[in-house]
């Protein structure tokens, strides 16, 4: 069996020319699928996860639980110290203890009842909910999301 180099090179040239000929059609057919996928995976704007004193009068809230009920992206159950907070769309397990609470830049743990006792709503200047890559700065502790509370000093 002999291989004719000229024929193989010519076949390869014809094959690659046919691919190039149909490539624009292929791209046009796939473009709607690509754009639909990109739109479906677009993240929620971070602005929707922030409450700032320029927009909200925090002193109008009786307590932190009442304020967090108005925060987009949070699931709030219960009342007072017994409130349970979960961040929507977060991957959680049976052992998940909920979001990490950070007050004035200091990690305060997962206990809402401790934060409830610790935070006076008239002192709050900003509340921010961090998820996904935004919470990566807190490592594995931020895997359930992070609620960052800043107070007036």
Describe this structure in words.
By secondary structure, the chain is α+β, with helices and mostly antiparallel strands. It folds into two domains: 1-42; 46-151, Ferric Hydroxamate Uptake Protein, Chain A, domain 1, CATH 2.170.130. The protein has helices at residues 5-40, 64-69, 112-118, and strands at residues 50-52, 74-77, 84-87, 100-103, 106-107, 124-130, 146-151. The protein has a five-stranded mixed sheet with strand order 1-6-7-4-5, with no helix packed on it. A two-stranded antiparallel sheet has the order 2-3. The longest helix is centred in the N-terminal third of the chain and has 36 residues, at 5-40. It is elongated. The chain starts with a helix and ends with a strand. The model is unreliable at 40-48 (pLDDT under 50).
């Amino acid at each position: 069996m002999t291989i004719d180099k000229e024929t193989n090179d010519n076949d390869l040239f014809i094959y690659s020319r046919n691919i190039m000929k149909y490539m624009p059609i292929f791209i046009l057919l796939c473009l709607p699928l690509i754009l639909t996928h990109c739109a479906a995976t677009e993240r929620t704007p971070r602005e929707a996860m922030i409450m700032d004193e320029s927009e909200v009068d925090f002193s109008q809230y009786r307590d932190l639980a009442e304020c967090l009920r108005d925060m987009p992206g949070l699931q709030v159950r219960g009342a007072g110290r017994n409130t349970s907070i979960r961040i929507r769309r977060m991957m959680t397990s049976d052992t998940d203890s909920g979001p990490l609470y950070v007050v004035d830049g200091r990690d305060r743990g997962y206990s809402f009842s401790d934060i409830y006792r610790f935070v006076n709503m008239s002192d709050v200047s900003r509340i921010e909910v961090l998820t996904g890559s935004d919470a990566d700065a807190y490592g594995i502790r931020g895997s359930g999301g992070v609620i960052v509370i800043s107070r007036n000093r």
